[in-house]
Design a protein that fits this description.
Length: about 140
């Protein structure tokens, strides 16, 4: 089964001005400021991890990225590779999940890479949380 063609919510190294942004160059049809509600952001080794907030009150700031139709399959494969995500594989560092994000047009579904469950539990217990959920502002 093929993945639905949703936009991506990015919150770390894929943001404009960050080191992996070039991966999206020339393949994006829209960039919109957006918020992922119900999530917390933690600092990792040079990149952040978003985690579902057990209390449901956290917010992660980022951008909603609409991918050009002709580039969608390549961008999906490139982002999965960057995030070391293989659908259904055990041991993924991130999981690509569908979540509602809020942007200029209100709430809409997007793909989001969240920390896998064991890593999320470890981060919630011992991680360095990024207050305000804004990774570039925390650096």
């Amino acid at each position: 089964m093929t993945a639905p063609r949703l936009p991506f919510f990015v919150y770390g190294t894929l943001l404009r001005g960050q080191r992996n942004h070039a991966l999206l160059a020339g393949r994006v049809r829209s960039w919109t400021a957006a918020v992922l509600p119900g999530a917390l952001l933690f600092d990792g080794p040079g990149y952040p991890f978003a985690v579902a907030d057990p209390a449901g009150r956290g917010r992660v700031r980022g951008e909603l990225v609409g991918i050009a139709e002709e580039s969608y399959d390549l961008v999906l494969a490139d982002l999965d590779r960057l995030e070391t995500y293989v659908p259904g594989a055990p041991g993924n560092l991130y999981e690509r999940v569908r979540r509602a994000v809020t942007g200029e047009r209100g709430a809409q579904e997007a793909w989001v890479y969240l920390a896998n469950e064991p890593l999320a539990a470890q981060l919630l217990a011992h991680g360095r949380r990024i207050d305000g959920g804004d990774w570039p502002a925390s650096r």
